[in-house]
Design brief:
single chain, alpha/beta, Rossmann fold, 3 domains, seven-stranded mixed sheet, elongated, GTP-binding, nucleotide-binding, G_SEPTIN_dom, GTP binding
Amino acid sequence: MRTAEELRRRKNSKQIITFNLLLLGEPGIGKNSFLENLAINNPSSSVIKIVPEDEGTNNNTLRFESSIVKIKNELTSSIILNVTSADIMNQLNSTSAPKKIREYIETQLNSFLTDEFRVLRNQEYNGHSDKRLHACIFFVNGNAKGLHTQEIDTLKEISSLINVILAIGKADRFNTNEIKNLKRRINEDIIKNDIKIFDFNDDYLDDIFEDCEHILVKEFQPFTVISGNILSKPGKELYRQNVCSKMHVDDIKISNLSYLKGIILGSHIQELQTSTNSIIYEKFRTKILLERQNEINIKNDIPESDPDKIMEEATLSPLYLTMEQSPQGLTMIPDADIMVGKELQEKNKIIEAYQRKIDALEKIIQHSNDSSPTTKVTFCELEGTI
């Protein structure tokens, strides 16, 4: 007879988690190898690459390549990874790449926002239709002894829209001391340029992986990644063959690949999804709705509100708008009931002001022995204005 733990694991194994991942970095930095390494150790897993529609049309334009990684687990939930990859320096005019990458991420967020108003907000959204990117593995070159200008520009554009995790691609190019100094310089550049990266808080390595040191996970960022190109046996060790040596890439002494895989596919997958939905998306949603409200205010000669200022004062300010779906797309209109309520509040304030004046005049009349006609006329005229 199966135990309760076995039954729970069998039930979890039937569940499927959908996770959207973005891989960014220079051409040849190891993005494709990393993608292959996510599933290569698992014989029942697979990587399906989707050929772009504009394949081969223009090598100088920024392209987003899509892949699907299906990872089947016997005792835990299976995972479907929707992976999008892009080269940040694969075009002649590379200065436009950071903005285009930001626009791509915003498009996925905006698509979810549009679909959200087609159903009740409290209903469960179809996870397979959710294209919001949950995390970005950003592969740093490292040859600049830190972050180079293109990497900084890209990270500054996207870090507020996605959970960024840094990795040093092809880390076998550097020795131990070089890796240590490179990590220090990269973290200095992150702080100097006010770039946001995913915060692992106080999560310790030994809480996630067995037989590991009691070290904070965030101290490993940027993670050193060495991807393998040789598999000893199906489901066994993965190696990288160089000219002079053969390295076991899952060896934690030379590579953080196993840590990074464990974080993305296990320990922090739920946390990354929650951060995307509850923090990143809610901030994006609030900003977009406030901007659209200001557009309506301008048309109605109402003073414009500052979205950033309002977001600082209140995370979710009351919005006097409703969403309607029209043939032209999603539109926002003033909520009639709320607008009428605001008008009544303004009129009540005027009435209260007049009432205070009336009360003051009545006190004067009561304490005055001289009931002058002037006072009575003033009182009657005031009554007539109400």
